[in-house]
Amino acid sequence: MLKIVPIFLFMLIMQTSNAQQTKIIAHRGAWKEFNLPENSIASLEKAIELKCDGAEFDVRRTADGVLVVNHDPVYFGDTIQTNTYAYLNRNKLSNGESLPTLEQYFLMGTQNKHKTLLICEIKAAIKDKVQDSLATIETLALAKRLKIEKRIVYISFSKDILSWIKEQHSKAIVLYLESDLTIDAVVKNKFDGINLHYTSFKNNSQLSATAKQAGLKIGSWTVNELSDLAILQAQGVEWITTNQPQQFQKQLKD
Predict the structure, then answer these.
(1) Which residues, in sequence order, are CB contacts of 137 under 8 Å at separation 6+?
(2) CATH number at 23-253
(3) Residues 11-21: tens digit of each pLDDT
């Protein structure tokens, strides 16, 4: 019995520690649970209202150099990088909002001293490295002008984009979304962490521990089942991106 009690206490402490370090990130804002357009200002406001640890969103660049918040490379069937903002914005989101500009999103997301971080994914353009570079440079410049650099975490599937961010702003936190690098390679690239599809962790139960040992931050996307949340939480995955932020928050509190 004397040997069992310490083991039980250790497991209890580990479970409590994992619960405390698990951060809930609203994927494209808190849109799905509240029937809002994804990546809209309204979905960002809802994520902040829920006191999510972060609100994830996607950045693209129009032909006339306007940074906009939209996941897909097309908006109402029109390719974003080859059309002007005015042309694209003739179509509105389902709640009547205009296509959000990044500046509008940044201003809304940082206007108060809440703790919801902006998880900014800079999307690679369609076969256009110049657009990628411009989108990266201009995003960083905007954050600097608005004096909100400390309230942003950058993520991307593009190694180049993350490397450019680090070159421009070495203190920026960048997380790599693709699973094609080893943990050693992530460290060598000077990225701050990984943010991988949840199946990467389910298929490799040691991945999180290896990343943590290397001093990396650990995130996962897009986790929508409570059973998967429990698995990732037990593995010590810190940042959970989900379309169900309110449900996940309730689960962590129960």
Answers:
(1) 164, 168
(2) 3.20.20.190
(3) 333 444 454 58
